[in-house]
Amino acid sequence: MKRLFWLGVGVAAGVALSRRAGQVARQVTPAGIADNISDAISELAGALGAFGADIRAGMVERERELTDDVVQRTGINPMPRAALAAAEQTLRTSAAPARRPGRARRADG
Predict the structure, then answer these.
(1) Distance set, CA 43 to CA 23, 24, 39, 40, 46 (Å)
(2) Close Cβ partners of 95 (under 8 Å, ≥ 6 residues apart)
(3) Which residues neighbour 22 within 8 Å (Cβ) at sequence distance 6 or greater?
(4) What is the per-residue pLDDT for 109?
């Protein structure tokens, strides 16, 4: 019984190591490298989009602060509230980009 247990452990370990070695070998092929690069570029594009949305949000917030300061100090409204509200609405609609579903991976037999 003990030998049968260790035989099962050895078979399971062999299968696991074989599958892992196949995955590593796939990653160093040109197709595997291309997949890794495309995933990295997709992540970078998403990060840049989020960064741009944060910058736009900061710009609208700062524009509101500056407009309030100008109105408070001079009584002159350099930017009508309707224009500022339109800018904020545009920011809200562009700040929530549609999520693309993850790319399906091919099954490697």
Answers:
(1) 22, 22, 6, 5, 5
(2) 53, 56, 57
(3) 108
(4) 42
DSSP states along the chain: -HHHHHHHHHHHHHHHHHHHHHHHHHHTSHHHHHHHHHHHHHHHHHHHHHHHHHHHHHHHHHHHHHHHHHHHHHS--SS-HHHHHHHHHHHHHHHSPPPPPPPPPPP--
Q: Which pLDDT tens digits describe the chain residue by residue (109 residues)?
A: 788 888 898 989 999 998 988 888 777 788 888 888 999 999 999 999 999 999 999 998 998 898 889 888 888 777 777 777 777 787 777 755 555 555 545 555 4
The length of the chain, given as a count of residues: 109
